[in-house]
């Protein structure tokens, strides 16, 4: 690659998620050269990934090409490459093909789902962090019903129609609601040899309550909404084992071919790259200005960072990452232009939202807390506003309206790798 | 599967393409039980598949769940299964798991692309018949530009940016136009180390002219439109070889990493299942009523059939398949209800359409023949009308309008199988 003749400081951003993209955009007019490196060519709007997994939206609806997002920033280039390490002494980012030198480095590589040391569970369950995760889950969900139509044995059919979500956080709750509606409403009437409404959807949470990040009374309302949709919520049910037969939790075995893991995440390998001190989730411990100790030109943000506020680590949510991205961009711009340090990063929590099914949501805006249709409406508005690109907004809004009015799902699509020959003939596990 | 207690004749339809789905719908009110068997869970609107391959539309936009299409037909069941053969004597369709007995059988399994005995070419080029084909081509197209951004060697970059379409039929012509617009318009400005407008798009045709199915003067207009879009059209250039370096055609070698094959198709293996007489393309030779000789209750339609009209075989296009599907449904309904035979199948050719780029099309409606924006508009209207489902129509229309007005592409998404680790690091061939 023709090396740019750089007179200006070079900012390298690894990862084009919420944090990295905000940083890149905020540096668009700064007197620096910016290089955004991502293994994918697109930014992914993860909060709606569960809607791809449940056949509401298509992957492209919640993705935006990184190049298109920063096209008009002439100081910004995008490299699609896999970062394998960082050379802190030489100030270089290492990819498979080359080393890219930096003056300032922003690590925003996010997190992956984690089985808390039980990686073998990954063979029998799926996490939900990438588009491939989402389309695999979509395929398994839809194939389970197809296989049930062909399954004469009632017990085996029951296992096919039992969907277990591990983890009572927002993702688990939203997935459970969406799967319940898929089974009990969308697919009702589509089969001749069984009734999809027989399907069981279980939500397992190890703690005594779901949605621990929300106030008790809102979580309670969400649980009632889930129950109303036909989801069995089991709290204080830590998972002991996941195998080809299903899940063992709270002492009992739940036969299931469809286990979805939303219980835990661990940060990207950035901690190893930087040889830095990390927390239990593998997140890099950073200083109050989000830099790596002893490396004031290396920033770590978003799910990859363990940043403390009032002694407590900030949650791994999009708003934190976005605010951190804008903050580090501001810090860098001020340093380059010789302005004074803006002071330590402070997260302003604008509140949290979660949705259960097609018309119920909970909103915790600090003083203002409410649940119901109004919560769902706020959830919808906020997500549409933050979704990148007018086109995607219109497409998603239309498809939501369509799904809302007709109970249809637009993306009921089972696709296979070129290698896979036949659909229902192969064990569903293999399709993960 | 709980066998249905059938008092009524059982019609088994293999394949839910244009022909099979038309037959199923036409039998919805007939006094028969209908079973539709397909390896996929969705009907695919193949005429727009090239728009998935060129990042205009998402796979789900041109797909409809078969179950949803026939949901209201209580006499119709859908089985997602892979048919492996037919037992004509026992009147049974054989799938991996079971045999399904029929009183009437409709084979509508379509065609696959064919390399005319050069299957080894498949390793270095891709056909366009399935959604997996389309997303693979999309991935390769987009990755070629990503790799070019990282490629210092001008010769290698030139090979990455050379796109060769083999076959001057409608698919090749429409793909060429769409790729030219992607390279010269959509991606212009998205890269910093090369100009996507350097890209070469070649359309190779073995015959002396493209679009042989169209009148000479319309094909000429289409060729001018392609040239205007920057496509190099080479007629009388039969392909001699396709390998990892590119294509050898008309004596010369064309270095290219992106070869797309639209030159030939061969029918599904139905001919072997039926142990029937087939033509050179593997299509089953059927009688004037579309039945298999000696088997008046076995029908073969669409791309799988070689049906003669005025001594000439009918073309493998959607209108033929749809009219044949309705015809065989009519024949079966009449037999079951004791009405008289409707007479041999006659194809009514309503005309042919092809489009070049975003605002030019050709239309051959027999007496009425025209080219230009009007041809494109007619193409658009016809395709929207035949696209199944109001939702898909709105989504596709909106995305076309968006692409037309902004020159953006909505589905610029590179996705990988869970196995694939890193994007640009692996040879593009492997991503096929």
From TrEMBL, chains A, B:
Q: Which reaction does it catalyse?
A: a quinone + NADH + H(+) = a quinol + NAD(+)
The residues covered by the FAD/NAD(P)-binding domain are: 10-325
Give an example GO molecular function: NADH dehydrogenase (quinone) (non-electrogenic) activity
Per the record's keyword annotation, is Transit peptide included, yes or no? yes
Q: Which organism is it from?
A: Thermosporothrix hazakensis
A Pfam entry, by short name: Pyr_redox_2
Boundaries of every External alternative NADH-ubiquinone oxidoreductase-like C-terminal domain copy: 350-405
**Alphabetized InterPro entries for the sequence:** FAD/NAD-bd_sf (IPR036188), FAD/NAD-binding_dom (IPR023753), NDH-2 (IPR045024), NDH2-like_C (IPR054585)
- The protein, known as: NADH:ubiquinone reductase (non-electrogenic)
Keywords per UniProt: FAD, Flavoprotein, Membrane, NAD, Oxidoreductase, Transit peptide, Transmembrane, Transmembrane helix
